[in-house]
Specification:
The structure is a single chain. The protein is about 40% helix and about 15% strand. The chain contains 14 helices and 13 strands. The strands form three sheets. Strands 2-8-7-6-5-3-4 form a seven-stranded mixed sheet, sandwiched between helices. Helix 7 links the parallel strand 5 and strand 6. Helix 6 packs parallel to helix 7 and helix 13 packs across helix 14. The chain is globular and about 65 Å long.
């Protein structure tokens, strides 16, 4: 009887993975058990008990054996009403705004053409912009903000003229700086991007805490802003765990983005939870108002704290501060069971900066005590 042949030496399957992917680090979420979690700009408020019970009943009655159906249309209509979407606009849903950023890059990439599309954004900004560009094969151009985290309008206009980006992101307010940039400068940058045929995405993830929204300009001057898309998420609204983002803009443009969306990307559970929340939008609006009030208290306390070198104004549910040694302060706060975000390695302009989430009065007091003891 012949003995079985020895198995051949397997090839290195890891070599099939793109080199740039193998060189990357996966997105990390800090372990937070037993910690006060002030690192991710989450809404600290839980649903009231009676709403928890009502939501549980609704989710329990869903037909989980079926793919999402027409209820998605109800959700789109509810979001359009909530955002006061202009006439002639369309809406596309994402599994969080992260997925929408991926879809935009995918729709604008130019594989097989010998040309590479470009994505442009002010930096420091949201980490998903350059990451999505890299993974979908776009070039990314980051235009530094001023040292005080304002838009460098001349630099933005020069970069647009030179690189002619397919997508320009403007976070409004910005993460991690919490700044809401000058509306006139933003419009001039939008005009410049449109003049060379580019798309502009206004990322309003933190809109519930901001003093203005760009959708008002889109509604007032639709022709001037016909190349502008508005992106929002329900994460900062109070549903970070639901993972639902939405993109609105001129219907013809949105329809093209929708073509690259995976089917059934929003589950029946996510969709129904979002619908339920929108039916109780007043509850979440009250929570946002409370966080805005607490933000004022927090900023005032930080500006009086010895060891805080700079505390920037905020139009979001986070506050950026600079300290003498951000690594030491971060580790000290962590040892005291408070998690914040050390953003100092994200960009040279963020040297020794910490990003603090705005929480309840009790959370903020605990955070401030841990920070003061750690400086």
């Amino acid at each position: 009887m012949n003995s079985p042949a020895a198995p051949s030496t397997p090839l290195n399957a890891l070599a099939r993975i793109r080199p740039d992917v193998r060189a990357m680090h996966a997105y990390g979420v800090q372990p937070s058990t037993g910690m006060l979690k002030m690192d991710a700009m989450e809404n600290p408020f839980r649903l009231p008990a009676h709403l928890q019970a009502a939501l549980g009943q609704r989710l329990g009655a869903l037909a989980l054996n079926r793919y999402p159906g027409d209820r998605v249309l109800d959700l789109k209509a509810a979001l359009a009403k909530y955002a006061d979407m202009p006439e002639g606009y369309g809406i596309v849903l994402g599994n969080g705004s992260d997925e929408l950023i991926t879809l935009l890059a995918l729709a604008c990439a130019q594989p097989g053409t010998g040309q590479r599309a470009t994505m442009l954004a002010p930096m420091p900004g949201f980490v998903m912009y350059p990451l999505s560009a890299q993974l979908q094969g776009l070039d990314f151009v980051g235009v530094p903000l001023t040292p005080d985290f304002e838009l460098d309008e001349p630099a933005m206009l020069a970069a647009i003229a030179r690189h002619q980006p397919a997508i320009t992101y403007i976070a409004y307010p910005n993460n991690p700086t919490a700044t809401l940039w000058d509306e006139g400068a933003v419009q001039r940058i939008i005009d410049a991007a449109g003049a060379q045929g580019g798309i502009v995405v206004m990322d309003e993830a933190y809109q519930p805490f901001a003093s203005r929204t760009f959708i008002d300009r889109m509604r007032a001057e639709p022709a001037r802003n016909a190349h502008v898309l508005l992106m929002r998420t329900l994460s900062k609204f109070g549903l970070a765990g639901v993972r639902l983002g939405y993109l609105i803009g001129p219907a013809a443009l949105v329809a093209e983005i929708d073509k690259v969306r995976p089917p059934y990307n929003v589950s029946v559970l996510n969709g129904e939870a979002a619908l339920f929340a929108l039916e109780h939008a007043d509850v979440f609006a009250a929570q946002a108002a409370e966080l805005v009030a607490q933000r004022t208290v927090l900023v005032n306390a930080l500006r009086q704290m010895p060891g805080i070198e700079k505390c920037w104004d905020s139009e979001a549910n986070m506050v950026l501060v600079r300290v003498a040694d951000s690594a030491r302060a971060y580790e000290g706060m962590k040892a005291r069971k408070v998690l914040v975000k050390n953003v100092s390695t994200m960009h040279p302009l963020l040297a020794n900066c910490l990003r603090l989430t705005v929480g309840t009065a009790e959370d903020n007091a605990q955070m401030l005590a841990a920070l003061q003891a750690s400086l």
